[in-house]
Write a structure and sequence with these properties.
Helix content is 62%, strand content 7%. It has 249 residues and is of the alpha+beta class. Helix 3 (25-50) packs across helix 4 (52-70).
Length: 249
């Protein structure tokens, strides 16, 4: 009995669940992973302290990429912008529309109505391109994967690029959309090109514009002159009448 009691006292105490979990393979792996992350964060802080310019450049690049990712436009925004540009052109007469703007918008609207526009997200920017068929089309050419659009043909099919909340190609095509260049192609070459005004011309125009707001003083002076002349004439007439009366007397 005494020997059994001594053996029981000499036996080690049983480990708790937390200690058993830490000593397991999963616990060892998690501790090593946390240790690696701790060392990596420490190296990042020390490197940023030692090289502040390099760290600021990296932070700026990461911040710019994050902002571009969150401001990246989607297909719904492209559809809204396209309809808005089409409405702007429809308010103008066909004689006043820019041929480049009208042709580009009308072609994209036609592809949209045919269901041939596609949208691709590339992380920090978006692409809108066109395909040959509508996805709901049941023709063999439309459903066969071997006849689908190849990736090497994608640059030729891109219609617009969305970046930083804007669709750049559509906005560039809409520059001077209300100016029809064909109206001026029959004019001489020196009249087709307009040059910006010089500094002297700008100053002269500003001076004339400021003078146009001044009160007119020439009319007041002319009226005062006319009143003085009339007074002098009346005084001379009165003196002549007095002289005539004196002669009669």
């Amino acid at each position: 009995m005494f020997c059994a009691a001594a053996e029981t006292a000499a036996a080690p105490a049983t480990k708790s669940r937390w200690e058993a979990l830490k000593s397991s393979k999963a616990g060892v792996w998690c501790r090593s992973l946390l240790s690696d992350y701790k060392e990596a964060c420490k190296e990042i802080v020390v490197g940023a302290w030692e090289h502040p310019v390099k760290a600021s450049v990296y932070v700026s690049l990461l911040g710019g990429a994050w902002a571009c990712f969150h401001t990246k436009p989607d297909y719904s925004s492209f559809d809204a912008v396209l309809l808005e540009r089409s409405n702007q052109l429809s308010l103008l007469s066909p004689w006043n529309r820019n041929g480049t703007s009208d042709g580009h918008v009308q072609s994209v609207v036609k592809l949209r109505n045919e269901g041939r526009l596609r949208h691709a997200s590339l992380g920090i920017l978006s692409l809108v391109y066109y395909t040959d068929y509508d996805p709901d089309n049941t023709l063999y050419e439309a459903q066969c994967s071997n006849l689908s659009v190849r990736w090497r043909e994608l640059p030729q099919r891109v219609l617009d690029v969305g970046f930083a909340g804007r669709w750049w190609m559509l906005n560039s095509k809409m520059q001077d959309y209300d100016v029809n260049d064909d109206e001026f192609k029959h004019l001489p070459s020196h009249m087709q090109v307009t040059s910006p005004p010089s500094v002297q011309e700008v100053e002269r125009n500003e001076r004339l514009h400021k003078e146009s707001w001044l009160a007119l003083t020439g009319l007041d002076e002319e009226m005062e002159t006319n009143v003085g002349v009339r007074k002098e004439e009346s005084v001379s007439e009165e003196s002549q009448m007095k002289e005539v009366k004196q002669e009669q007397v």
